[in-house]
# Entry
Amino acid sequence: MKIAIITAICILFCVPVIAAERIGTLSNNPYLKDSTSNVYGAGSPYNANSVNNPYATDAPKVYDQQGNYRGKLSTNKYDPDSISNPYGRYGSKYSSESINNPYGAGSPYKSDSPTNPYGTGLDIFGSD
# Structure
């Protein structure tokens, strides 16, 4: 009986989650190979997965180095998760979770901030 219960728990909670593909780094550092600021890498507007591609249909998602969600790389000002929404959680310059807040997640002194020109930036993942 105990084995059946343990097996059922493992099946319910140990199922691997299919993760989205990592497609680059949101960073001002143009020397990082996969940086959105590197016009020959992830920042190329000709790259199908690039955040700079104006024809992209699904907005990529941004995560910091600790795995915290930081919003969608979208120019949609009405999407609540967009980093371009000035009133949203991830786009407001007053929200601590926004990369647009120079005293929060967007501080140029944080190593994973996209505004730090020498930092590692944030990870960008395609839609799942």
User: Anything to note?
Assistant: Residues 19-128 form one domain. The first helix runs from residue 2 to 13. The longest strand covers residues 22-26. Confidence is low (pLDDT under 50) at residues 4-18.
